[in-house]
Every structure is written in structure tokens, then in C-alpha cells.
Hints:
Layout (H helix, E strand, L loop, with lengths): L4 E2 L6 E7 L4 E7 L4 E3 L3 E3 L5 E9 L4 E9 L5 E7 L5 E11 L4 E10 L5 E9 L4 E7 L6 E8 L5 E7 L4 E7 L5 E7 L7 E8 L4 E7 L4 E6 L5 E6 L4 E8 L5 E10 L4 E10 L4 E6 L8 E2 L5 E4 L2 E8 L15 E8 L4 E7 L4 E9 L5 E8 L10 E7 L35
Antiparallel strand pairs: 1-8, 2-3, 3-32, 4-6, 5-6, 6-7, 7-8, 9-10, 10-11, 11-12, 13-14, 14-15, 15-16, 17-18, 18-19, 19-20, 21-22, 22-23, 23-24, 25-27, 26-27, 27-28, 28-29, 30-31, 31-32
Amino acid sequence: MFKKYCTLGLILFFVSISFSLFSQTFEKIYRTQLDDFSNDAIKLSDNSFVISINSGNFEFDDYNGKLIKLSEEGDIIDSVLICISNEYKLSYISNLFNLNDSIIIAVGICKNLNTNNYQVLLAKFNTQLELLFDTIVGNEIPIEYYFDHILTHDNKLVSIGTKQPEYDHFIYVRDLNGNLLNYKYLIDTIYISTALTIKELVNENKYHLYIFEALKPIWVINKETLEIDTVYHYPDRFRSQDAVIGTDSLSYYVSGKSYNPDYNMRTPAFIKVSNSGEIIEFNEYLANPDTNSYCQINCFDHYNNKIFLAATYNFTQAPPFYFREEPRWIWINKLNLDGSIIWQRFYKGEVNYMHYTVLATSDGGALIISTKYDWNDPIPEQRDVHILKIDSTGWYNGINTGITPYETPKQILVYPNPVKNEVKF
């Protein structure tokens, strides 16, 4: 595969940053003339952030992948463009993982232009965003749709999804050089369904695989044989999105959406699951009984016994179309471990915002990644990436509460506009 490492030269951010003794807050917009969105972000050991960004053409599902590194104050440190062979086009960078304190794993989905089938892009970077290794792997025969990837405790990449139109579910296990170690097709003969997310149970030597269909099964998978050992079930109203590590060794969380038949509404939710597959808790949150809220995959995180659950508030389609001309808010819930609410906040809302990722931070706040679609923009079907860092109370510099001691936001002039070869501030 053709490899290329390149530093991004024309990234334009409009920045508002504030400082306090305990927490940094900031707001940024990543904007190009292309459609821009982000699926994932990670924290590094030095408290900096690495964010994946996809920039390209929505209509043709053709993007370039980028990684940007931000300091904890919100300053851009570095960036890199992920370039792949002309025989493929990238759909998106789907996942970022911390392999250790010095290596980042990026996983993406790309389409083979010769076979029209989807394959997996696997790349390694150091924390300075220097490319160490990349490859494209995957079965080129069936049409496979990947829905989740996890990095196991022994550094294997597990990918799950569903082959269509047969709706057969699959598990691929690879090492981090892309070599296939094991795979299995799990045939569901009862329902048309989708394999949504998978969780590794280290001590039990099992996986829990979540299938979306009428019976809401949790398949307990033997890690060695990849056979189904047992079947449990999650709540009927719940649709799983992502399995998240728990705060103890005996259980974990699964984030997702809940359909509430009493209100005919979709709302953010999560369940707590024991390692044996039993449902311990089911928590769902309703902002307004006549308004839908939508969760993306990376909508849940926790730190220091506090949970952040994020959603997009106010949409009229399920799932919501990205470019719909309706105001949408970023909705953040800060919760205790038992699901009780500490606070709820709504952000932005003047145009269409759609939440993608929330990261709980060590200062008690969170980093929030969303997209912003402004239907007044002259470029159709074009989103911008919105990056927001809030403190432990949900505040950020730009919200006028009348009680905070933080600085007044600075105004930054950027010229020329549009940018060509030089930017002046």
C-alpha cells in the first residue's frame, strides 16, 4: 500500500479559550470547504487530546482521514493526513485506541474500488503523530458492514459486523500487523438483525456480543473457539450502541438509545451489565416528552466515579438526517454511578449540532466533539467539526452565568479570508 506522511498546512480554527486555577475550557470549530466530521477522540497521558477528522464528499462517501493533536488548553500541537492507495476510498476513521503511552492505533473503513467491498484500515502512530505502520485488511469477497472494533487486553483488534443481504454476523480477530488470527460467522436464522457492539470479559475468557433484533440477545462468545456458549437478553426498549469498561471488575456499561412507547420517543440510555450477562441497572433520560434525542456510539464516558452521557437533542427523523434544517442542541448529562443526575446542560442550538464523542477529563469536566451544520452556508451538505471543553459544572468560556471569575472571551481576527498560503492573527 502506498504510504505518505504529511503535516496539514491549512487548518483554520476560530478559538475562544479561558483559564482558571483548576480547569481549562475552550471552544473550536474545524472548518474546510468539504464535509467534515469526527467519530472518535482519545486522551493521552500528558492530558493532550488526539481527534480523528474525516473531510470529503458526503454524496460519494469519499473522505480523507486526519488526526489532530490538541493541548489541554485547546492549542493545536500537531496534525497528520492519512493517505491511502488510489485503489481505495476512505469512508471514515472509526476508532482511536491508546496502545500504550507512546503508540496510537487508528482504525478506519475504506471501500475497495475494484470489488466495491468494505475493508479495514489499520494504522499506528506515535504520540508525535508520526506514522509507524499502516495496512488495509479484510475479506474482499462478501459485502461486509463493520459496526464495532475493540482493542483487547492482549493487544488484538477484534472487528464485528454483519454481512448483507444475508444478515450473517461475523467476528474477525487480528494482530496489530493486520494478520488474521481467527474468525467466525455466526448465523442468525430467525431475524434480520445487526451485530452492534462487543465487550471483552478478560477473566471469563469470553466476549459479549450484542445483537439488535426482536429478542435483544447478548451472545456469550468463547474467545478461543468463537462459538456461542450462552444467550442472555437486554431490555426490550433498549438499543445498544457501545460497550464501555466499568468502574469495577465485575460489571461494565453499555450505552445506547431507549424507545419509550409511552411517549413514542427515543432518548439516551445506558445499562449496567454483570460479567455473567445479567442486567443490573437500566437508566434512561427524557428531556421533553414530545422531542426525540439521539445518541451516537461514543456518547458515554466516566472518570472518578462520575458519568457523562451525551446526546443530540431535538430531531424529527429516526435516525436524524445530518443535513436537516432544524435547530439541534448538544445535550450533556453528568451523573453519579447509580444513574442519578448531578446536572443536565444544553449547548448551542442556533443551527444543527449533532454530538459524536464525549471524553470525561481529570478536572471533572469533559471534551465534547460534535458536528455543526448551518443550512445558510453556501456549500450544501457540508458539516464543520465543533470541539467544546467544559469544566466540572458544565460551564465553558462563552456561557454568561454572571457568577464565574473567568476571563472575558477574546476576539480573534483571521485574515485573509478565504485562506491561501498564509494566515495572520
